[in-house]
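Researcher: Please predict.
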Amino acid sequence: MKTAPVSRIGTHLLRSALDMFRDRSGIAATEFAVIVPLMLVMFFGVVEFSQGVAVDRKVTMVARTVSDLTSQAPSSAPQATQSTINDTYLQNVFTASIAMFQPYPAAPTNAQVSEIYVDSTGTAKIQWSKAATILGNATQATLTASSRSAGDDVTNLVPPTLLVRKTYLIWSEVSYRYVPTIGYVMIPTGVLLSDRAFTRPRQVVCIVYNNLPALVAGSCPLT
């Protein structure tokens, strides 16, 4: 029996190795397998981040609207310096947030609105405050107790340019937990978004809720 010379076997192995390295028939599939995970991360990241930015803008709009609608409460009588609001009025104000969040879900949203008085010394204190929540598929906001109480000193929380002595402010605070639809890139449990807004009563000096602030001779206190 004859055997192939060793040199011929070595040449054959070398040629086979070169042919293997020259073979590019599977390189596209390999590159695809490497690139796809990176492309998916980038795609879902852009989608989730874009939606988060859009929802954050909604939160800002809701904060401004809650403050603005409250500050537009009409006067309780001609020539009156104050207007009076009740729970029904505030509930309607908070409920308006549901439509503003469209096409995104309005839940879970926590909001509260407060009236602030800046006294003659420049100290800002809460006069009254009320909160509301929007949960699940609710079509109406549910009023709740606020984390602010009458008499709380909030001077450090009000922008210095708004600390005009002997004036009232309407202050809204809104928080919303944005939970990404996919949660592939961002935190699956969501990100807490929040904003606040300040406006002055539009048609009156102060807005009375639950007999606060207590009127002096039928007028808003200005001390």
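Model: The CA atoms of residues 62 and 97 lie 6 Å apart.
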